[in-house]
Design brief:
Blueprint (H helix, E strand, L loop, with lengths): L1 H8 L21 E10 L7 E10 L4 E7 L8 H7 L12 H14 L2 E3 L3 H12 L9 E3 H8 L11 H8 L8 H19 L5 E2 L5 E3 L2
Parallel strand pairs: 1-4, 4-5
Antiparallel strand pairs: 1-2, 2-3, 6-7
Helix pairs in contact: 5-7, 6-7
């Protein structure tokens, strides 16, 4: 099935991200899944100020892209302390409503992974705030995947990215959207190795992108 899927996907044009992601080469159409992470400017989850995408190919390679977003709200001091992003950082960045139309095609065409449900909620809230339709995407939670792969961590440090970074020896800068997206993708791939099988994720048409 995987070989046939790769052959089918090779017929499609490569994807191009919005220019704010500073993409240097087109994305290969043969994408297994995309891990997504966002940072927010304030306590309102709609206030997305950075988007990170970790694009995972059928050969398990990970290509990471990130972009700043103008949240068009005042930054909360606590949020800035967490991720280091402030009004100066996003000066000149596009607002969410300008980015989403070009992101929609790629995000709706492939399975999406998030570490906890926060990122899906943020996208839904930002869409509602901008009076745009929510993404017709199927989201999977890498926290749930990690719980299946490492049940012994429940009550023993948990399955947050900070603890998994130590347990799995991951190298990333926490609370940077691109880095956290890549870490979520690495958690999925590591879980597959531990469990000895591919995790079945669905795309927006409810078709398996890859098998158990």
């Amino acid at each position: 099935m995987r070989g046939q899927l790769q052959n089918d996907m090779s017929q499609f044009e490569p994807f191009t991200l919005p220019s704010c992601f500073a993409q240097t080469v087109p994305l290969n159409a043969a994408i297994r899944f995309i891990a997504v992470d966002v940072e927010t400017a304030a306590y309102d989850v709609a206030s997305i100020c950075q988007i990170g995408l970790a694009v995972v190919g059928f050969d398990d390679t990970i290509t990471t892209h990130s972009a700043y977003v103008d949240p068009q709200v005042t930054f909360a001091a606590g949020n800035t302390r967490l991720h280091g992003i402030d009004a100066g950082t996003v000066h000149g960045a596009p607002p969410f409503y300008e980015i989403l139309p070009d992101l929609r095609d790629i995000m709706e065409a492939h399975p999406l992974v998030q570490h906890s449900r926060f990122d899906e909620k943020a996208f839904d809230a930002a869409c509602a705030h901008a009076d745009l339709p929510v993404l017709k995407s199927d989201w999977s939670d890498s926290v749930a995947i990690a719980r299946k792969a490492w049940p012994e961590l429940r009550g023993n440090g948990g399955h947050g990215l900070g603890h998994l970074k130590q347990v799995l020896g991951l190298q990333f800068r926490h609370h940077d959207a691109g880095e956290d997206a890549r870490a979520a993708a690495q958690v999925v791939l590591a879980a597959e190795r531990v469990m000895g099988r591919k995790i079945g994720l669905l795309n927006a048409t409810r078709q398996l992108a890859f098998d158990f």
